[in-house]
Amino acid sequence: MQTIATETSVVGDLEVSRQLTGADRCDSCGAQAYVRVEMASGELLFCAHHGREVHAKLFPIAKSWHDESARLLEDHRS
After folding, report:
1. Whole-angstrom distance, CA of residue 29 vs CA of residue 46
2. CA distance 12 to 49
3. Which InterPro entries match (predicted)?
4. Of 44, 5, 4, 45, nearest in space to 22 by CA
5. Residue-wise pLDDT tens digits, 14-63
6. HEC string of the chain?
7. Nearest to residue 68, comparing CAs of 44, 53, 46, 41?
8. For residues 13 and 35, what is the distance between their CA atoms, to the nearest angstrom?
9. pLDDT of 59-77, one tens digit each?
10. C or N terminus of the chain, fewer CB within 10 Å?
11. What is d(CA 54, CA 52) in angstroms, rounded to the nearest whole number?
């Protein structure tokens, strides 16, 4: 499993990054998603709160864990 700061996917020989946007919503509560978890069965999106809540349970079995919750601190400092 990998933990990544920015989401990347390979298209041909190019790597393409996709950050989470305001359109990405938490599967638990519908708030803006800051955590993307890739599981064998598919993708899960979580707000920072629910991402922390499920981390201990899902992190060990996730294929990848993409956490952008640090953006909340950056937004707050601006």
Report:
1. 8
2. 36
3. DUF7455
4. 45
5. 444 489 999 999 999 999 999 999 999 999 999 999 999 999 999 999 99
6. CEEECCCEEEECCEEEECCCCCCCECCCCCCECCEEEEECCEEEEECHHHHHHHHHHHHHHCCEEEECCHHHHHHHHC
7. 46
8. 26
9. 999 999 999 999 998 756 6
10. C
11. 6
- Tokens 């499920």 -> residue: 54
Tell which phi-psi region holds residue 71, choosing left (phi > 0), alpha (psi between -120 and 50) or beta. Answer: alpha
For residue 56 the two structure tokens come to 């201990």
With beta carbons less than 8 A apart as the criterion, state whether 20 and 33 touch: yes
The contacts of residue 68 (CB under 8 Å, 6+ apart) are 5, 19, 20, 34, 35
